[in-house]
Design goal:
Elements (H helix, E strand, L loop, with lengths): L14 H15 L11 H8 L3 H13 L3 E4 L3 E4 L22 E2 L9 H16 L3 H5 L4 H4 L3 H10 L9 E4 L2 H12 L5 E5 L6 H7 L3 E5 L1 E2 L2 E2 L1 H11 L3 E4 L13 H14 L2 E5 L13 H4 L4 E6 L11 E4 L2 H14 L5 H13 L1 H23 L6 E2 L5 E5 L6 H10 L2 E2 L1 E2 L13 E5 L5 H15 L11
Parallel strand pairs: 3-15, 5-6, 5-9, 9-10, 10-11
Antiparallel strand pairs: 1-2, 4-12, 7-8, 11-12, 13-14, 14-17, 16-17
Helix pairs in contact: 1-3, 2-3, 7-14, 8-13, 10-11, 15-17
């Protein structure tokens, strides 16, 4: 059934977003195929009786998510279907970050201290680089020398584990993939928070897993709701972020962690515990993995709390799943990159990692204080040293319109619905990340957000 072109009456506000979605549906439906040239901005604007600017914004949105491409002299043409671009790339591409204040990507605060530390590490490596770091090809050759320092870092995170329970990975994304492949097989059901990790849905889809969201409250997952889900759907695994990393910045209390661990035993499912930013929060509670080590695949890394470019992660495996996890890692990654692991190991051993961790804690404490000052009479959700806040919107603001108006005013944020696990669930909120910008830009951007939040939308000012 042909669904292109849409009728003007079928387009809703903001019109550019509605038009972009209509084109994605047309691509998915087969009205356009890869390589097809799209109508020019002017022709489509004329056919639909809308502004050229609106068509341009719709095409820009599709370019941003990788569905189409635009080339001077060739026009705009189709790259792929919606299923090929279903990851929510709401964050800004690198070439646009200098044009907007970027609150869209979860990233630690970075300053000259990080550049200096990496330069010093590389100079040191040039003087005494072990041959195995650049010549190793088999995983076993790069695993054992580093496990003791990995164990030391995990102790800072609240876990005391044997070295042979640790799998070195290229960061938390690699750990997450291995954990999912280890805990479940195609067709199995995974449950997680109703608003969760924005790449979990596409990843589980690629792996052939079913994913559902479970209701949460101020502490995250609600045990009673999780138990009802277990009785109805028999999930193979629970994926959870209990230490404020989840979009709504919820921190799970100790009693609830124990309840969740007990449910895992009762209903025989594996817990995948995402602790990607590690020991960034003050007064950390024990990880769920410390309460149920036989039931939890736990992972953390250094890129969120120490250095963004240091893609080194640690996956802690129960004995019963260790062999399977190593095999999954072997076929998806082969081995962790030895150069990154070498630097991470040296930094843990000589105290650089802890120094950068403490610096990050202080920087995030300052930034959270700035948010509290600017949003003193605004209801929002945050964790003590978190890298983001969750901002529910008043009824008079729709999420898409608010995000679009912020962008018009030079600020990029993550739309809350991008984190919804169940399709169609509306958040009417935005996620604001505190780390990617300078402190001056943070203050300026927060002022823009607050100013827009406090006034009702002027529909006449929205460009159509």
């Amino acid at each position: 059934m042909t669904i292109w072109p849409p009728k003007k009456s079928e387009l809703t506000r903001p019109v550019y977003r509605s038009l972009a979605n209509a084109l994605l549906r047309a691509i998915e439906n087969g009205d356009f195929t890869i390589g097809d040239r799209l109508p020019t901005h002017r022709d489509l604007a004329y056919d639909l009786d809308i502004s050229i600017q609106t068509v341009s914004r719709a095409y820009e949105e599709l370019i941003r998510v990788g569905a189409i491409a635009g080339e001077v002299g060739r026009g705009s043409y189709v790259l792929g279907s919606q299923s090929d671009t279903k990851t929510s790339h709401f964050y800004l591409p690198a070439d646009q970050r200098n044009k907007l204040i970027d609150f869209s990507i979860l990233k630690p605060v970075c300053e000259q201290i990080h550049i200096d530390a990496m330069r010093a590490a590389l100079r040191n490596l040039s003087d005494n680089l072990p041959a195995d770091v650049v010549l190793s090809f088999r995983p076993t050759a790069t695993r054992h020398p580093y496990l003791e320092q990995a164990k030391n870092w995990l102790q800072i995170c609240g876990l005391d584990v044997a070295a042979n329970s640790i799998l070195l990975t290229n960061g938390s994304t690699a750990s997450m993939t291995v954990a999912l492949m280890t805990a479940a097989r195609p067709g199995d059901h995974i449950v997680t928070e109703d608003f969760g990790h924005h790449t979990l849905r596409p990843l589980t889809g690629y792996l052939g897993l079913k994913l559902s969201g479970c209701a949460t409250d101020e502490e995250g997952l609600v045990p009673e709701e999780l138990e009802r889900f277990c009785l109805a759907h028999h999930p193979k695994a629970l994926y959870t972020m209990p230490d404020g990393l989840n979009p709504k910045a919820r921190i799970m209390g100790l009693s609830r962690r124990k309840d969740i661990a007990e449910l895992a035993r009762k209903y025989d499912f594996t817990i995948i515990e995402n602790d990607a930013w590690g020991p960034i929060q003050p007064d950390r509670l024990p990880p769920i993995a410390s309460l149920a080590p036989d039931r939890v695949l736990y992972f953390t890394g250094l890129s969120k709390c120490v250095m963004p470019g240091l893609r080194t992660g640690y996956l802690v495996m129960p004995d019963s799943l260790a062999a399977a996890a190593r095999n999954r890692h072997l076929v998806t990654n082969w081995m962790a990159t030895a150069m990154s692991v070498e630097i991470a190991t040296r930094w843990i051993a000589d105290g650089t990692a802890v120094k950068l961790l403490e610096w990050q804690k202080s920087a995030l404490a300052t930034r959270n204080s700035l948010v509290a000052r600017h949003f003193s009479n605004v209801d929002y959700l945050a964790s003590p040293h978190g890298m983001h806040i969750w901002l529910p919107l008043p009824q008079y603001w729709g999420e898409e319109a608010f995000v679009a108006q912020l962008r018009e005013n030079g600020v990029a944020v993550g739309p809350g619905s991008a984190f919804a696990v169940d399709a169609g669930k509306v958040a009417n909120a935005v996620r604001i990340c505190l780390g990617p910008t300078s402190q001056e830009e943070l203050v300026n951007g927060l002022s823009v957000v607050r100013s827009l939040l406090m006034r009702q939308p002027d529909l006449d000012s929205i460009h159509l």
